[in-house]
Amino acid sequence: MINIDTDFGFSKNDKIVIGCSTGPDSMALLDMLLKVRDKYSLSLIVAHVNHNVRKESVTEEAFLKKYCEEKELIFESMTIEEYGDDNFHNEARNIRYNFFEMVVLKYEANYLMTAHHGDDLMETVLMRLVRGSNLNGYSGFRKIVDMGNYKIVRPLIKYTKEELIKYDEENEVKYFIDSSNSKDKYTRNRYRKYVLPFLKEEDSNVHLKFLKFSDNLHRAYEFIEKERDKALKRVLDGEKILIDKFLLEDEFIQKEIIYYFLNMFYQDDLILVNDRHIDLIFSLIRSRKANSFVNLPNLVIASKTYNVLELKRDTFDITSYEIELSDSVLLPNNMVIEMISDVSDNSNYICRLNSKEVSLPLIVRSRRFGDRMKIKGLNGSKKVKDIFIDKKISIEKRELWPVVTDSRGKIVWIPGLKKSKFDKKKNESYDIILKYD
């Protein structure tokens, strides 16, 4: 039995902004708040983001606007006109929360409520466990986050998706289903469709176990934060890390300091960053080179200049890079490599691979001296330099042209130019499709 009145301590005259998508979760939350509105004299403001990637989104926004008019609710909305990031979910989330905060400040609300539930928490924890993170990342997200002049609250965190849908059915709450939530191309969807059902078969209350796990990690991290903050005072010069002093700290605290800086660029959603990225930063720190840098997701650069380490978002004068290939990657040459589910094209802009023949994860990097690739349909290998010459690629473009390798360094594709022996025809066995666009 869901009772939001017992799940959150309301006060008289609370002003609450509700992030509402018209999905079953947020519509359930909105209905629950309406049921206690008069009891606590609540001021409710509905904030809706049209992600503008499905034709149904226009209908859904119109429905919600009319619903709010009928229920005498304030309605605020925005439409995302374009995306420029290398990860759709991450960018959409950042835009969404920036908009929510703007609405909160406009109405001087004291709470922003979202309909994140127990399944969402499990998905987040599992994704971060697999990709690698720190204790804060492994804990997923919190029920209440203090943002200073308002709080983000997720009052439904102890309920499952099934329980919320059942609530909607019992209370005749209308909702819409986002068709993109069923597509396997998104990592979170694969956890939702294949991993969570197995866990729930093992224990129907497994989401509560994850919630307890999350709470325990949050408490542990609160202690670690205090130790990290002491270390920051010892190793920082403004917003830059002094490497000699940094290396004197405990290795665990060193890692927390790196995550502290990464959080400035990725907010509280570090899903784009994994252990490999952390290892790249530590390799940079320990490098004997006086000047060097590594590329991180979303065009963030970790640069080393003698004894100083700095993180910044900048693409100016990039001549080398190395990025782990995830669902989609925006490259320094402004091209994109993405994993897709199907395509009829068989040009050099498409690459099909069998994961059993290559070592994952795949890496996208700039060319290196001595690079050679085993060419599809030919015996032996060919210098990457010669491939550039054959294709009449200018020296300027060669510097940023992507080279795709497996984790052992074998070159599997030069996007747009040449395929390796690992590329598969459409009638052969493959489970990875890459597109360069």
Can you give a write-up of this model?
With 437 residues, this protein is an alpha+beta fold. The protein folds into three domains: 4-117 and 154-182, Rossmann fold; 212-318, 2-Layer Sandwich (Uridine Diphospho-n-acetylenolpyruvylglucosamine Reductase, domain 3), CATH 3.30.465; 323-436, Phenylalanyl-trna Synthetase, Chain B, domain 3 (Phenylalanyl-tRNA Synthetase, Chain B, domain 3). Helices cover 40% and strands 20% of the residues. The chain contains 14 helices and 22 strands. The protein has a six-stranded mixed sheet, with helices on both faces. It has a five-stranded antiparallel sheet with strand order 7-8-11-10-9. The chain has a five-stranded antiparallel sheet with strand order 12-16-19-20-21, with no helix packed on it. β10 and β11 (308-313) form a beta hairpin. α2 packs across α7 (161-170), α5 (118-131) crosses α8 and α9 (206-235) crosses α11. It is globular and about 75 Å long. The N and C termini lie far apart (49 Å). The model has no long low-confidence stretch (mean pLDDT 88).
CATH superfamily of the largest domain: HUPs
Report helical residue fraction.
Answer: 40-55%
**What percent strand?**
15-25%
Number of strands: 22
Residue-averaged pLDDT: 88
N-to-C span: 49 Å
Count of distinct structural domains: 3
Strands across the major sheet, in which order? 3-2-1-4-6-5
| Assigned CATH architecture of the largest domain | 3-Layer(aba) Sandwich
What are the low-pLDDT stretches, counting only 5+ consecutive residues below 50? none
| Separate helix tally | 14
